[in-house]
Amino acid sequence: MATPDFILKLREKIGHETLWIPAVRGVVFDDDGRVLLGQRADNGQWGLISGILEPGEEPAPGLLREILEETGVVADTERLVSVDAVGPTSYPNGDVCHFLTLAFRCRHVSGQARVNDDESLAVGWFRREHIPALMPGHLEAIRQAAEPHAVVRYRR
User: In this structure, are residues 43 and 122 in contact, taking their beta carbons and an 8 Å threshold?
Assistant: First the structure.
């Protein structure tokens, strides 16, 4: 999985120390109510399309960029679903991160879902009753996004 250049530069200075990183996650629904999922190349797990924001990047446009880059799908954000502190996440090289993750409900605008970069092994649309095992928190985000009148979820 490609690590953004700004993180590589920070790692040169701080080594494996814990980083606090802004991230986004998309619950993308198509017109048939299916959700877009990707199987990650780094750990083989299925999950929502997610990514790290670049410094100064707005969350919603950053998420739409990630969705397009990873899947070839053009989407639009509809609403914020949740705000979560995720982690710590430890990587095989010793790096540790905590993520501030903003999840958005999105709708498919155009494009065929496909593996569009080296971050995914597979990409596809899934009906809710056929969703594979997902990474922690992802199924909860799908349930929250599917509720038409749900308010933003955050832990208190």
Answer: no
Total number of domains constituting the chain: 1
Domain contains 123? yes
CB 60 within 8 A of CB 131: no
Separation of CA 101 from chain center: 8
- Total-model pTM: 0.93
Task: List the beta bridge partners of residue 49.
Answer: 26
Kindly report the average pLDDT of the chain as a whole number: 94
Give a yes or no: residue 10 inside a domain.
no
Residue 134 main-chain phi, psi, to 5 deg: -115, 165
Kindly give, in sequence order, each residue whose CB lies less than 8 Å from that of residue 135, ignoring residues fewer than 6 positions away. Answer: 40, 45, 46, 47
CATH of residue 70's domain is 3.90.79.10
Whole-number Cα distances in Å, 121 to 18, 41, 117, 126:
28, 5, 9, 16
Low-confidence ranges of the chain (pLDDT < 50): none
Q: How far apart are CA 32 and CA 124, in angstroms?
A: 13
Evaluate whether residue 109 is within a structural domain. Answer: yes
